[in-house]
Design brief:
554 residues; mainly alpha; Growth Hormone, Chain: A; 3 domains; 6-stranded mixed sheet; 23 helices; 68% helix; 5% strand
Amino acid sequence: MSQPTTTTTATNPAEQRRNSNDSETSTVHDTFTINEPIPLQEVASYREQIREQMPPGVLATRTLSINPYPSKHTDLEAVNSRIMTHQSEKRPIMHYVNWDVNDPECPYNWDSKIRWLYTILVACLVVSAAFGSSVITGNINGVVKSFGCTEEVAILQVSLMVFGFMLGPLLWSPLSELFGRKPVYIIALFIYVIFNIPCAVATNIQTVLVCRFFSGFFASCSLTLAGGSISDLFPTETRGNAIAYFAAAPYAGPVLGPIVGGWISVGTGGWRWIYWVNMIFSGVMWILVCFLPETYHPKLLAARAKRMRKETGDPTYVTVEEEFPVPVSELVQANLVRPFIMLATEPILLLMSLYIAVIYALLYAFFFAYPIVFQGVRGFNDGEVGLTFIGVIIGTFFALMVTPIFEKKFRVVVHQKNGKPDPEDRLPGMMFAAPFIPISLFIFGWTSFPWCHWIGGCISGIPFGFGMVIVYYAANNYIIDCFPRYVTSALAAKTLIRSGSGAAFPLFINQMYARLNNQWASTLLAFISIAILPIPFCFYKWGSSIRARSKSAS
């Protein structure tokens, strides 16, 4: 099948944006010609191919149409950057509604203060969900005393919620594409708030564990949609700094959990108030979500098209998504089938997801290793153990101070390569930060002797927090840039592996430290992080050749 051809007949919209102060008079004319019928099953593929050919400055996902019906010729011409006309042999002329250049209703053009406030709020949503997964570690054995269960069963309070993080995105991602971001946020997070109540009033451990799984399932909506919300607000060239805050949230949130949970346990003497406080925190975040505007571009454009149909009485004003809706089968393929296929066939996705998963798992391992060292060896109480995680938080703040430097260097590379950087240009940050992970583990392990000062173990959290945020930030951007056509599937695959490892590690950390002793257990974890350390260096050197042989990568 021949490739669709693209002919640009006017100036680049990005250039128009710089040269014109009147968004109402700026126009662009782009014609896309497809010279043969397109089978229905190939519509999505052609849609993505044309998106890649769209000139910068035009919201590509809103300004194309493909005729999936048998016809010999289809022309799509933009009369201006807002309304597009589509002529088919068997169909009437349709007017496709799109954003104007510098359109004030487009989220890209909202006031920067509003966009950054929105970014901080959705990052806080991620913090809230991640906080809920670890807050119970402030008194993980409280249920042991209340219900007579084993310590291994008590640890499931953490593992089952993280397991819910793994499965939830398979539902929330496609729902957000069908109904927009805000309705999914509101419904899912409200149910998450409610599931904290039976945890707090439970009379048996089974109730706690079941509700913890569903808490994770519904809370994962934040982990799934926050990145999409940020991408709705910032174009690719200015998205890096916002993504850095998002990258810190899934790791800063769990670290806050034991700090807060430990002092709740000390102050109240029980574990139930931990769940009540978590419900209050998540409830406040839910109230804030209710006041957030919708950011999903197709939904905003659909509202514009509906308004134009009402104002003009002309039913031909539609969005591309309204006339060519994404089939449910395509959503199922993207979220339930393709992630597993890509993991099996794409070494870049598999190994980068594995790297992220190991870092995430080490973080959750710390929630049980820290009490072993600081409580078991040094006699700290629950609240004092929680304070030892402050080092990790300090490290994440240092990471947020450094990420703008890497973003600035990346923009220089973008300029040098005429706006077409390679995905591997995202990896220098990861290569710089990767060694900090094993360094932190060696420090933690070999300062855990009773005769060593406790400050050594606390300091070990600083390089860990610094390394994990920058590694995740760079790796996440690398995956997105490598798989632009299948980014939803790639991120779903990454989330599956990351959350699965985070759920599994807590189940054997206590036994591992008991068998190997504190020093060698931490050293074993350090060796694991050293074993995966060459991954970003290898992809920096050979990533382009690997992508050249891939069916999914750019």
